[in-house]
Amino acid sequence: MTVFDYLLMALPVVFLIGSVLLAVKAVSRGKSRKTTMLMQLASFGFVFAVCMICPFVASAATGDVAAAVAGADGMAYIGAAAATGLSCIGGGIAVGNAAPAAIGATSEDPKAFGKAIIFVALGEGIALYGMLISIMILSKIG
Q1: How far apart are CA 26 and CA 35, in angstroms?
Q2: Which one, of 82, 94, 74, 7, lies nearest residue 44 by Cα?
Q3: Distance between CA 113 and CA 101 in Å, rounded?
């Protein structure tokens, strides 16, 4: 690998670190956190898209079938990671909202514990479903 290749590999990391620093500076100047978070997600999406598109275009241009197949396996790994990661984030949000409500309901009426814990368990089930989907995706690769 040449020095140019290493610079190209480091460019997305430098871009993301720069966007984080700009976001911290924007929040300290009084910009809303929601706007700053949306800008962070947009910059991450842009870097992700560029990093995903460039290898596919390069392998298609050279006609390298092995690189295209390896890229397809890479997409399966990314899909499995996205299934697990996003379902865990959703499960965390669900449990984060349901657990305090369950504690409040239980403190008012101890008989409501059984019903309240079901809603917390349903939120945790979302993460399990995502993990099962990622296991199914990974079992198709090998």
Answers
A1: 10
A2: 82
A3: 11
Give the CA dihedral 105, 108, 114, 119, nearest 10 degrees.
0
Q: Is the dihedral of CA 75, 80, 81, 86 positive or negative?
A: positive
What's the pTM? 0.56
Number of neighbouring beta carbons within 10 Å of residue 87: 20
Tokens 């995502």 belong to residue = 130
What is the spatial distance between Cα 47 and Cα 69, in angstroms, rounded to a whole number? 22
CA 34 – CA 52 distance, rounded (Å)? 27
Ranges of H-type helices in 1-142: 3-28, 33-62, 65-108, 113-141
Per-residue pLDDT of the chain (142 residues; tens, 9 = 90+): 677 767 777 777 788 888 888 888 888 888 888 888 888 888 888 877 777 777 655 555 566 656 555 566 777 888 888 899 999 999 999 999 889 999 999 999 989 888 888 988 988 898 999 999 999 998 988 6
Question: What CA–CA distance (Å, rounded) separates 95 from 123?
Answer: 5
